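Quick one: structure tokens for this chain, please?
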Amino acid sequence: MMNTTPTNDMSFPFWPPARTLNAGGRLIDLSRPVVMGILNATPDSFYAASRAQGERAIAARADEIVAQGGGIIDVGAFSTRPGAAEVDEAEEMERLRCALRVVRNCQPDAVVSVDTFRPDVARMAVEEFGAAIINDVSEGGVGTVAGTAPLEEGEGVPPMFAMVARLGVAYVLMSVRATVGEMLTVFARKVAQLHSLGVADVILDPGFGFGKSMEQNYQVMAQLPKLSVTGLPLLVGVSRKSMLTRLLGCTAEEALNATSALHAVALLHGASLLRVHDVSQAVEVCRVVEQLRGSSAAPIE
């Protein structure tokens, strides 16, 4: 159950209020930012260094995320980058089973999120491996994902919503909308639908890089504080994405500095969670921003 308590600290008006997230029976304190480390069990994710192929590589990545301060391991087996190879449900399940088995063996106490848009894959991950969060990039089936037909608005309860409600896990609702205004309208409707189904813990993701131009991505980031009106935690995923590489004319491998800069902006604009490739650097950004926030509340001498 989400617990939201207003804060009296007005020096950082966009800092999220104190709240907790129920992740598989474990309460995660979101009054401090949480870093979600990416573990890609794919051969073709856009950032080559994030690909963990084979049991040793998967174990090493899971251990690294935890050792560097990551609070959540986000495991994915379907690349959503433009031009990525199509992966059917059976192949996604096979990849995830292998990865999740390794993660559970080497990090049995880790909070695990699974990045999938397929309800049956979500069920497998939760029932067989205890995944606590489903991270859905399709906005409940409305957003277009390679090889799938999006749902039409008003078609009833999205299958993923029904599955997450049945499983009783936390859910990341990502937007494929281009503007914050559109997001607020759709988020309001879909969060109400999720809550009516009994999904208590909903995290909102503005969906940087999904259904947006480069300029629109930056407009959404600039207006991120407006999403705080929902009272729900915000997850931001901008790590090494094309909104940075296109702007700077660099590769994903060269985009760490820009990523860290945008992480700081996201935190100052109300993000509670960062989904990242570079865990230790993101944790450092979180510590700096926390210190800044604390210092801003100190009395003037």
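The chain has nine helices and eleven strands.
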